[in-house]
Amino acid sequence: MGRRPWKCSRYCKNKPYIKSRYCRGVPDPKIKIYDVGKKKVGCDVFPACVHLLSLEKEQISSESLEAARISANKHMINAVGKDNFHIRVRLHPYNVIRINKMLTCAGADRLQTGMRGAYGKPSGLCARVNINQIMMSIRTLGKGADAAAEALRRAKFKFPGRQLVYISRNWGFTPFPQEKFQEGRQGITEWRGNTGLIVADGVGTKFITGKGMRLSQHGLYHPSSGDSKERSNAAMRLNWGLGADLEALAEKF
After folding, report:
1. Is residue 72 within 8 Å of residue 152, measured between CB atoms?
2. Distance (Å, rounded) from C-alpha 110 to C-alpha 124?
């Protein structure tokens, strides 16, 4: 008996069923790599970002995730080169698919019991996706946005249901719009009611504000903070080096 069509497992109709000490013998997912391309390049290099959104609440098999990753990766290599993009698969298959195997040989009706004890055995893994949830993302150079949209359009054919290719207005994988990102990287900017700096943190960013700093960083010493001016610790010396003024932070970063 071959693989069942995915219409048998497409809909989220039961509770999540994951691998545990009670559910053993679960096969490994077909997708092993979730980030391809130049995944360690900093956030400043790739400004354009394109997402693939799901328009249905359904289950996505690990086989289809791997097929979509291969398809998108191949198109991006041919279109912009292997060093000019970063693909990230945002879904991880943890939900276990069960199957009640039925015999198809002659005399099978004498060996099996129909629907008696029909609780199946694990046969595969899938990811559960909601409406408007991001399935895949590609960040690339500004000129590669159209190629990324085409790569995700080709990846759509590997999935059931309906998807939407969405060109983001944000800078790469960061939550900041492109104009706000450039402004925050050059100096102090305002973001969601706070004032601070946008500091690179690998693929993503950090928004550095004056809030949440230790009292000793502001030059204040109080017994409640556990700081003593006569006996400094490593955290205090680090805070002294950063400084309390945002202007000093701007010069540092």
Report:
1. yes
2. 28
Q: Which amino acid is at 37?
A: G
Q: Which two tokens stand for residue 149?
A: 């949209």
Question: Does residue 244 contact residue 217 with C-beta atoms inside 8 Å?
Answer: yes
> What CA–CA distance (Å, rounded) separates 161 from 150?
18
pLDDT tens-digit map of 64-86? 999 999 999 999 999 999 999 99
Is residue 111 over pLDDT 50?
Answer: yes
Count of beta carbons in the 10 Å neighbourhood of residue 219: 9
Could you give the count of Cα atoms lying within 13 Å of 4 in the half-sphere of its Cβ?
Answer: 14
Q: Label residue 38 by pLDDT band (50, 70, 90).
A: very high
How far apart are the C-alpha atoms of 191 and 61, rounded to whole Å?
Answer: 38
